[in-house]
Amino acid sequence: MIRALVPGDAADLQAFVRRLSPASRRQRFQSGLNELYPALLEQLTRAGGHGHAAFVAVANANGCETIIGEARYAPSVEDPGATEFAVAVADEWQHIGLGTALIGRLVAQACRSRISRLYGDVLQDNRGMLSLAKKLGFRIGAHPDEAWLARVALDLRASRESTLRATPQPAAATLARRSTAGSSPAAISA
């Protein structure tokens, strides 16, 4: 199930990050951190306000929820008018469509929030994320400052327009439409 992240998820989010392999933590945070330091954990679990969204994918075993994926966006500090996103999926849950579902939820929320553009900075060696971004209609280009990063970007104005026209759509626009059609905004099964 995918649902909004709430402040009470702090301990579970920290446990999720600790369970990620070193490679997955490096791909998500672009550093070698082993866990979220307290100020970052506070910032990530209190993501709210205009232009912010955070979702978690959870698995339920014996009545206990475990975070198995996390996705978020926030206004860019570098590029006014743009919004930066990030996503991570637990290693044992990768390659089954969960990343696609999380990004779909982000795109749907961003469209509802009238956000113009989503972008993310991806390590050049993160072939899985680069392939997924391409499949979902993100434009992949060079990072403006760092050669070890690629920048993936999606123009949401074009996605909204193609959704409204009901013409062939980029995969991300299709995901946005599916994420909002006939589903509760609080929970979508992945």
Overall description:
The chain is built from seven helices and seven strands; from the N terminus they run E-H-H-H-E-E-E-H-E-H-E-E-H-H. The longest helix has 15 residues, at 98-112. It has helices at residues 10-19, 22-29, 38-45, 98-112, 127-135, 156-165, 171-180, and strands spanning 2-4, 53-61, 64-75, 83-89, 117-123, 139-142, 149-155. It is of the alpha+beta class and 190 residues long. Strand 3 (64-75) and strand 4 (83-89) form a beta hairpin. Helix 4 (98-112) crosses helix 7.
Pick out its properties.
seven-stranded mixed sheet; alpha+beta; 190 residues; single chain; 37% helix; 26% strand
Described by strand count, sense and barrel closure, the largest sheet is: 7 strands, mixed
- The number of distinct β-strands equals 7
Whole-Å distance between the termini? 6 Å
Strand content: 25-35%
> How large, in whole angstroms, is the Cα Rg?
16 Å
Q: How do the strands of the widest beta sheet line up side by side?
A: 1-2-3-4-5-7-6
Proportion of helical residues: 25-40%
Structural classification: alpha+beta
Number of H/I helices: 7
- Globally, the shape reads globular
Mean pLDDT: 84
Series of secondary-structure elements, N-terminal to C-terminal:
EHHHEEEHEHEEHH
Write down the oligomeric state: single chain
Uncertain runs: 163-169, 178-190
